[in-house]
UniProtKB/TrEMBL annotation:
Pfam families xref list: AhpC-TSA
CDD domains: TlpA_like_family
GO MF entries: antioxidant activity; isomerase activity; oxidoreductase activity
Domain called Thioredoxin: residue spans: 25-163
Protein name from the UniProt record: Thiol-disulfide isomerase-like thioredoxin
Top-level taxonomy: Bacteria, Thermotogati, Deinococcota, Deinococci, Thermales
Signal peptide boundaries: none
Keywords: Isomerase
Alphabetized InterPro entries for the sequence: AhpC/TSA, Thioredoxin-like_sf, Thioredoxin_domain, Thioredoxin_ResA/DsbE_sf
Length: 166
């Protein structure tokens, strides 16, 4: 491929990377409708979600998710904010998700209920993983992270969502 073609390809990929977060549910938007279940079989919807909260879309095979989860879990432990995790990988069965989450007891995995987790990811317009949504006390999106959410940025987003940090 000629040099100009490579530059065009890189520019196109960069543009796409910048555009994808703009396609997701936006700041201030209410959560899209969904009905999933927690490991105890209790239905979780935007109305029943404990708020403020964090919703993380992930996949069991995702190396960035694996690298990020210990930091997210520590923030969940320190703040007491519920972290709901939803695998957007259709091949991640209930058993796979629950086994994976044994290392992260503060996370609340949401599993197939009336909806399938990957369908919920589509409603949030999530195009990759991890994607993290911080939800305020009114059930509106206070922050969105496409890719890895850094600890400090996540804590700042929780402050914006009305969380009293320790």
């Amino acid at each position: 491929m000629p040099a100009w073609g490579m530059r065009l390809l890189k520019f196109g990929l960069l543009g796409l990377a910048l555009l994808l977060p703009a396609l997701a549910v936006k700041l201030g938007d209410p959560l899209p409708p969904f009905a999933l279940v927690d490991p105890k079989g209790q239905e979780v919807t935007p109305a029943t979600l404990r708020k403020p909260a964090v919703i993380v879309f992930w996949a069991s095979w995702c190396p960035v998710c694996r690298a990020e989860f210990p930091t997210l879990h520590k923030v969940a432990e320190e703040t007491g904010v519920p972290f709901y995790v939803i695998s957007r990988e259709p091949k991640d069965t209930r058993e796979v998700v629950l086994e994976y989450m044994k290392a992260y007891p503060r996370f609340i995995p949401l599993l197939a209920g009336k909806d399938k987790p990957h369908e919920v990811a589509n409603r949030f317009r999530v195009t990759g993983q991890p994607w993290t949504f911080v939800v305020d006390g009114e059930g509106r999106v206070a922050a969105v992270f496409a890719g890895r959410a850094g600890r400090e940025a996540l804590l700042d987003a929780l402050l914006l969502a009305g969380v009293d940090l320790p």
